[in-house]
Amino acid sequence: MVEEGHRAVMFFCVSHTGINSVTPAAHIDKKYAQAFVEVVEKGVEVIAYQVAIDSQEMKIVRSVSVVMPALLD
Question: What are the structural domains, with CATH classification, of the chain?
Answer without folding.
Answer: 2-66 (3.40.1350.60)
